[in-house]
Amino acid sequence: MSRKIKNNKKKVVNNENKYNNYYVSKFINMIMIDGKKTKAEKIVYNCLNLLKYKYNVNPLYIFIEAIKKVSPIIELKKKKVGGTNYIIPVKISNYRSINKGMKIIIKNTRIRNEKKSFISLFKEIVETYNGCSNSIQDKNDIYKTAKLNRAFSHFVF
């Protein structure tokens, strides 16, 4: 048995230099693959520049609103009771909700077939902001499953 004291504090994400925003820096860290942060920064910055020039609005506003539209309030967890697995809907914190929303956007961005990755990210963010993307469909699927399984919510952990 380990007697080491566990440190469960969340890591502080430093704001990036260009926009000085928590959401952008967190999104850059989540989109990064194999530690190539400069590539991830280029993808996100090019996407935000494209948003700025196409729509002549603050790109952070559209970006943050798209993330908030996708972030679910409920998460589905599995619990084994009496030999059967139940999917239980559980409310989650705001921090976890935003993380799930970013993961949903990144997953659907990687599915798209575009020549440049920042273009697929741009299209996904714009469609999410307008309310007609695959990301919003994924969020609705989570809610439908949670609604079907709300009878098992008394099995909360």
Description:
This protein has 157 residues and is mainly alpha-helical. It is built from six helices and two strands; from the N terminus they run αααββααα. It has a two-stranded antiparallel sheet with strand order 1-2. β1 and β2 form a beta hairpin. The longest helix is centred in the first third of the chain and has 19 residues. The relative contact order is 0.14.
Q: What is the average of the pLDDT values?
A: 90
Q: Which secondary-structure class do the elements indicate?
A: mainly alpha
Percentage of β-strand residues: 5-15%
Largest sheet: 2 strands, antiparallel
Helix fraction by DSSP (H/I, runs of at least 4): 55-70%
What is the tally of helical segments? 6
Unreliable spans are: none
Order of helices and strands: HHHEEHHH
Going across the biggest sheet, name each strand in turn: 1-2
- The general outline is globular
Rg calculated over all Cα atoms: 18 Å
In total, the number of strands is 2
What is the distance, rounded to the nearest whole angstrom, between the alpha carbons of the first and last residues? 24 Å
List keywords for this structure.
mainly alpha, 157 residues
Write a short abstract of this structure.
The protein is 56% helix and 10% strand.
Topology summary:
Blueprint (H helix, E strand, L loop, with lengths): L21 H10 L5 H19 L3 H12 L3 E8 L2 E8 L2 H18 L5 H14 L3 H15 L9
Antiparallel strand pairs: 1-2
